[in-house]
Amino acid sequence: MDSLPVAVVQYILSTINNAKDVASCNCVSKKWKDSMPYIKSLYFPRSIFDNLKNGQTSDRIVMQIVSSILQLEDLVVYCPFTSTGLASWLSLAGSSLKNLELRMDNLVDHITTNDNPSKLDCLHAARNIETLRLWGVLMVDAPKWDTFHKLQSLEIVGAKMVDLALAEALRAIPNLTNLVLLGCEGLRTVWVELFHLKHCKLDFYGSGSSSLTLTAPKIEYLEVQGCSLIRVRETNCLKNLSLANNAGRVYMVDFGKLMALESLSIRGVQWCWDAINKMLQLASEVTHLYMKVEFTGDFEALLPFPEIDFVDFFKSHPKLKVFDIHGAMFAALCQKNSLKKVDSTFMIPCLEEAMITVRSPLNAEQKMNTLESLVKFGKKLKKLKIKILGMKSGHSSADDFFEEICRFRYMNQRLISIE
Asked: Are 14 and 39 in contact (CB under 8 A)?
């Protein structure tokens, strides 16, 4: 490398980001050491300072490396640090930082937290950041932030929050386009009002009884887990929607017109039928539909789905290309009256792929009729996957039903597969 021009050496070394490698490069030669200030990214792994000696601290070493760089743009710190250390680094590099990722490690009781200012409060020094990722966050008080005008992406993984603190934090980020909150505990009534938001993924940990009110007229992708009441009124741009509640019950969904919706996924143990029915009505233009809801019922009692007319369902969803349904929805489509009178002109115009999960041999004849109807009326059907999951029966009906499915597959080998 001695024969290379200085500018080329600087360019090569500027791609190094691991802090241990940066420190090593400083020891190679004066030429290499003089190139280190031009790196743009720094990454401090979790265990980088596990064996410190002679009174050294992670705060001091991070400060030494950060202070040696002219214009740091990306900083990722997974190793332990204090709020004092964070404040000192950001006072130097905060104005040039564009992307900041921190493992906060302050998921502790508020009473035992003596940091002043808190780690969250220190972030205001990075006033020009565009992307912020935080791991292990305690947000019981609203962070003391000025407005982050350039911040477009906020991701928080693993957090204890209160409703008001989150609302105040989001108010300081008016131009956010991407919001990800995963594994967030303590939130009950969540209000999100972000007029530039396009991508939003929310995962609330707990009893599944949280409520969400989202105002985001430009939202295109929305994924929500753990809410029982969901209100999103301005949805003209929404293309992908995923709603799930693995711990509780979904009581109510309140959406505007889903004119642009292409993909809908609804999952959970129990949804009130009004909520399911409303989503199916609103999602009449979807091309991809995934349904894995086990039961309905407005109260504690778990009830099966009511009958869904096979013909009416596909007439109401004429653009459907990919259809993935779990046991309960499939059983609802397999009622006796569903296929009694089918118009000779009826067809499923766009369906190309169907994935059917069968968990019970009950009503085997109706289920076979429905599977055969998908093949018969699905003129563009290219793939039908039948998944047999946990089918339990004390008599031979399960074996007979499986034999019928195998015979059906044999007659349509290029089309049908069994898992």
From this structure: yes
Q: Output the six-digit token pair for 9.
A: 């050496």
CA atoms within 13 A on the CB side of 190: 30
Judge whether residue 343 has pLDDT over 90. no
Q: Please check the confidence at residue 315 and state whether its pLDDT lies above 90.
A: yes
Q: Hey, where are the domains in the chain?
A: 304-418
Which are the contacts of 175, defined by CB distance < 8 A and separation ≥ 6? 148, 149, 150, 151, 152, 196
Nearest alpha carbon to residue 159 among 189, 122, 186, 120: 186
Mean of the pLDDT values across residues 26-44?
88
pLDDT of 109 reads 47
Tell me the residue length of the chain.
Answer: 419
Give the model confidence (pLDDT) of 237-282 as tens digits: 999 999 999 998 999 999 998 999 999 999 999 999 999 999 999 9
What pLDDT band is residue 113 in, cutting at 50, 70 and 90? low
CA-to-CA dists, residue 8 to 11, 12, 30, 227, angstroms: 5, 6, 15, 54
pLDDT averaged over every residue in the chain? 90
Question: Order of strands, edge to edge, in the sheet holding 227-232?
Answer: 189-193, 210-215, 227-232, 252-255
Rg (CA), the chain: 28
* pTM above threshold 0.85: yes
Q: Looking at residue 361, what is its pLDDT?
A: 85
Residue 40 and residue 15 in contact, taking contact as beta carbons nearer than 8 Å: no
Q: Pick the residue with more confidence: 189 or 395? A: 189
